[in-house]
Design brief:
By secondary structure, this protein is of the alpha+beta class. The chain is built from 11 helices and 6 strands. The protein has 2 domains: 110 residues, no CATH class; 123 residues, no CATH class.
């Protein structure tokens, strides 16, 4: 986090008070536990300072209280981890387990407390991209073991992934063009798989993007899932980002 501040970058990390000590403006230790126990809103934030390589940096401390069910689950995990390590979980540690604590350098004028928490909740979408790459690019089926060949193959596959994004964006419009957004959720896995297969077929000369676009309305039934009880996180995240882009068209910041 301090490195991000020094390089004038924006970032956010999960905080563990026991391993990441903070300071007040006056330089005294920041009592995060007392701050959490103080009566207040379920989502809150404060200003803190951290030290790195002899320098002090100001950061935003953001907290969100978990609901009762999530708190119980988090405390059970904490106890299991302590038992495996041969330790006893203390009351302060169990208290902290009921919260999500974040440190961020995002500008408060542009990124509210709720925005910071939304960015953190969206982190799973980054992991899903990497998770999708393995089966869809067939990274586990490389036919060579020579380091140079493996490196070249992986680089070529990543270029293919970047190229297929154009087709993916085309398919993403299917939801808004052919059905009300509230009724369907477009599967990102199926969409990426179809886009990659389209690119493969284009290389072989058996398929074209024009043909894909012509079949777009018929493909909806294969790419969209039925209405679900649980909210689809990717759809929620994309809608939130679109709203932010409209409200801050010239003040977007890159989140590290």
């Amino acid at each position: 986090m301090a490195l991000a501040v020094r390089q004038h970058a924006a970032g956010g990390v999960r905080l563990s008070p026991a391993t990441f000590p903070l300071e007040t403006e006056a330089g005294a230790p920041c009592n995060v536990l007392r701050w959490l126990r103080h009566q207040g809103s379920a989502e809150r934030e404060g200003q803190s300072w951290c030290r790195w390589e002899g320098r002090r940096y100001r950061v935003r401390l953001v907290a969100a209280k978990l609901d009762a069910q999530a708190t119980l689950a988090a405390r059970r995990r904490a106890r299991r981890q302590a038992q495996k390590a041969g330790r006893t979980r203390t009351a302060p540690t169990l208290t902290v387990a009921g919260w999500v604590l974040l440190l961020t350098t995002l500008d408060a004028r542009t990124w509210t407390t709720a925005d910071v928490l939304s960015v953190y909740r969206a982190r799973w979408q980054v992991a899903l991209v990497l998770k999708k790459m393995k089966p869809l690019l067939r990274l586990n089926q490389l036919r060579t073991k020579h380091p140079t060949s493996v490196d070249a193959t992986v680089r070529a596959l990543l270029i293919g992934w970047a190229v297929h994004e154009g087709t993916t964006m085309l398919l993403r419009t299917l939801r808004s063009a052919t059905a009300p957004p509230a009724l369907t959720v477009v599967s990102s896995w199926l969409r990426s798989g179809l886009a990659l297969d389209t690119r493969r077929q284009q290389v072989q000369g058996q398929w074209s993007e024009a043909r894909l676009q012509a079949c777009r309305s018929r493909l909806r039934r294969f790419l969209c899932s039925r209405p679900r009880r649980r909210a689809h996180q990717e759809t929620t995240v994309r809608a939130w980002l679109e709203r932010r882009a409209l409200s801050h068209p010239t003040r977007q910041r890159q989140v590290a």
